[in-house]
Every structure is written in C-alpha cells, then in structure tokens.
Amino acid sequence: MASELVNLPEDRDTLKAMVRSLALERDREKQRAEELHRRAEESKQQTEELRVEMLRLQLELERFRKWYYGPRADRLASSGEVAQMLLAFAEEVNRKPVHPDDLPPAAEAADEPRRLRRRTGRRNLAHFENLPVTTHVHELSAEERACPCCGSQRREIGAEESWQIEYYPGRFERIQHVRKKYACPGCERNGGGARIEAAAKPEAPVDKGLAGPGLLAYIVTSKFSDYLPLYRLEDIFQRQGFEISRATQSIWCGDVAGLVEPLYELMAGRVRASRVVATGDTVMPMLAKGKTANARMWVYVGDEAAPYNIFDFTLNRGRDGPKYFLKDYGNVLLADAYGGYNGVVAGNGITRAGCWAHARRKIIEAEKAAPEIAREAVELVRALYAVEHRGKGLSAAARLELRQADSAPVLTNLREKLLIWKQQLLPKHPMAEAVKYVLGQWEELNVFCSDGAVPIDNNISEREMKRVVLNRKNSLFVGNARGGRTAAILASITSSCRRHDVDPQLYLTQLLVNLPEARWSELSAWLPDEWKRRQSAQPA
Description:
- The chain has 19 helices and 7 strands.
- Among the domains are: about 175-200, no CATH class; about 215-255 and about 505-530, no CATH class; about 260-355 and about 460-500, Nucleotidyltransferase, domain 5, CATH 3.30.420; about 355-450, no CATH class.
- Strand 6 (about 330-335), helix 10 and strand 7 (about 350-355) form a beta-alpha-beta unit.
- Helix 7 crosses helix 8 (about 245-270), helix 11 runs antiparallel to helix 12 (about 370-390) and helix 11 runs antiparallel to helix 14.
- Helices cover about 50% and strands about 5% of the residues.
- The chain is α/β, with parallel strands linked by helices and about 550 residues long.
- The longest helix has about 60 residues, at about 10-70.
- It has helices spanning about 1-5, 10-70, 80-95, 140-145, 185-190, 215-225, 230-240, 245-270, 320-325, 340-345, 355-365, 370-390, 395-425, 430-440, 440-445, 460-475, 480-500, 505-515, 530-535, and strands spanning about 180, 195-200, 275-285, 295-300, 310-315, 330-335, 350-355.
- The strands form 2 sheets. The protein has a 5-stranded mixed sheet. The chain has a two-stranded antiparallel ribbon with strand order 1-2.
C-alpha cells in the first residue's frame, strides 16, 4: 500500500481521474450488493409465500378429509391425544396371550347332540312396562308329568316367569265403507220425493283417494322424519304383500302438503313474531336438463315463544328468499357470515347476530398453520362457552347481566389479541384469514352480549340442516319446485314434532283425520305443541 502511495502520479488531473474511477467502482459494487440483497429479499418473500400457500393447501386437504372421513366435532388436534392413547392400549391388550380360563368350553362328546351357543344377558329397555302383553303358558304333557321314579302324576306347584320382546311387521288392510241409504216411503207415495239420505263417513285426507290417514302418515314420517327414500319404502311395502309405486307415494306426499299448508303458514307467521330467529341453508339439488340445479333449503327456527322449525325452498341462494320470508320481521336474526344476509337486514329493523361456533371452526381449521395462536384463541372462546354453561337456566335478564360481567372482558381481550395476530401474519396466511373472518363480523359476534335472549351460536339451525342433509343423501334430489315446496312443508311439520318430542306418525294420523273438517278458528289447536298439551291433559 505504501509503494502504491509512493508511485502516485504527481499530475492533478490524473489523480482526479483515478479518484473518479475508484468512486465509480465503489458505486457499482454497492449497487451490485443492493441488487443481491433485493434478490435475496424477493427470494425470501417468495419462499414465505410458497410456504403459506403450501400450508393453505394442506389445511384445505385436511378440511376435505375431515368432511369425508373425520369426526364432526370442532376440536384442536391436541384433544386427539387421549384417543390415540386408548388406541395404543387396545393394541397392547390385543397382543397379550389369551388366558385358558377365557377359552370356550370343550366340545361335548361325539354321541351328544351339539347345540349352538347363545349369548346370555339382559338389557334395561326404556318404557318396557308400556308395551302390550301377550301371555303364553307352557305346560308339560301328560307323559312328561309322569314321575320317573314311581310313575305317578306330578302336581303343579308354581310357575317361572320370563319376558321377551317381539316385533310384528305392519300389515295392509282394506277398509270398506258401506254407507246405508234411507228413504221415506210415505213421502214417496204422496209424490213428494223419497227424501233419500245416506249415512255420513269420515272425510278422506285425499278426496276420492285410496290412501287412509295412517298410511299417509306412515309414508310422510318415513321420508321426512326417518329419511327413508320412497324407492326403499316401495321395496318394504312389496315385502309386506302390497306394491305402491314411488310415483304414487310422491303424489300422496304432495296431497298431504297441500292439506296441511294452512297449518304450515300459521307456524311460519308465529316464527316471524319471535324475538330471535335462527336461520341457515344448505344445497337441495333439483332435477334439471343436463344436470341437477343447486336449489336451496332454508330453515327458520323460532324461539321458545314460537317453538316451530320452518323450512323454505328456493331456486337459488339469493337474498330474495330470506328477504321475502322475513319481510315482516323486525327483531334479531341469528345466522352465519354469509354475505347475502347483509341485504336481508338492510333498511329494516332486523339486528343481525353472529355465530361463535363458526368463528371457532375457522380458527381450528387453521390450527396446523399456527398452533400456538389457535390454542390461545380457542381457550378464550372456550371461556365464553363456560359462561354460557353457567347461565343456561337463567332468565334472559339474569343471563345478560352474567354475560356483561364475565363475557365482555373476555371479548375485549380476544379482540386485542386478534389485532396483534393480524399485524404479525401475512395476509394470505390461513390463520390470518381466520382472524379476518372473526374481526370482519365482530359487531355481529358481540350481539349476544347485549341481549340475554340471543344464543351464543347458531347450532340449533345447524342441527336442523343436518337432517336435511341426511334426507338429501338418501333421496338425492327433488323433482321440481313443487316437490321442493312439498319437502319444505312436510319437513317443517315433522321437525316441529321432533322439537316437542311428539310421535310424528300418531300426530299426523290424527291431524289427517280431523283437519279436512276443521274450521280456520280451530287450526291453532292442531299445532304440535298445542296438540301435545291437549293429549297430556286427557285422562289416561
């Protein structure tokens, strides 16, 4: 370095040129370093984005796997450790050798008749005493009563009693209605006419139809309460000795729906008077040219003052369906985060409430992307549900006081953490999307903390939607819009019966016997809860 300094040129212009050359080289090196740093940052960002995208795809794959094969409950993965321990314990037990005392007894001698082994044991069955009793008396024959010692006849000294439950399949019957006709011979002789009058018979649910009330009630109950498709009912009927085609059964279901539609409308009107209405929807495929159309089935669950579950069929998921159904409603609508509800509640007095079960599910689905965040968030949501458990039997006013004292601080803490996590995570991170979902409907999710009558989640309507899914899985689709309307009406009747623990077949049988002759003023007496109250009041 010293030699280079010694050999520097004395010329001023040459020195300036050398300095400029060194400065340019320094700037190029600095620019090259900055470019390398920029490329490294871009590569790092791309790597992070690819990692986030891979996480998102993994979570989506896990979500689909859970939908098809996994449990329905929303739990963190850590909660499966106990189940894994039990599985390991079962495998360990299975590997242990079998003790000789646990082996079945040796076979009898070859000259003794071998009998099949039967399982022994009793089961405690509910309502056993309510079943009708048929008594079978088993006696020894005269030859068997002879004493093997002295040959004299043995006397009866008592009896052993045991019980057995038997099932006898249903059967079809032809009921012939003979209406006797009467005439006045005196009036006929006097030329005033015979004054003929026939005895009355009960009105049929279907005018001039062959199906009786019990048969119609059985078909409706089987399809809309037990989720049996009509083609299976066709096979069941054929085994019992009488064939009713699924097309005929479908027409009969439509006839029943037309008969009970005024009752359906009465129930729907009462639901619209509820303080809180819970709603949800799911796909209900409808036959169309080429492929099935994605029509929708909606449910509207009334509160305790209007305890009915009303289904409504629409051709699409547009807001017009719920907007029309709730046109006269002005209280609280409990629903998920579907954006169409924004148009339903716009410009009217409806308050929209959110569902914490959906919010928790979004966080749990993103657990693998951020386990610590998921665990902390779910613990806070669990604290909200612990408060709900304590306030389960309280009045709405007392429950509101409890929520404001215990749930409000938890909500404040959770919102602060959600805002922090939002800043820490990349926008496309799966957990960031879950956080955005919760913050995006924060106002709706806080409604339950300002009204003690509003549930913390929308699980009540989600359970009813699962029943629609069961019917859809077995029956696949509805034939047309009229069939969708029929399904909505009859599902509303059977679902409301289930809500009040009413036997739908018994209820529908009595309803179909009496409704054809009922007046409009008597219609409310045939609501499922009113019918149950009337039945309970009758002497046993």
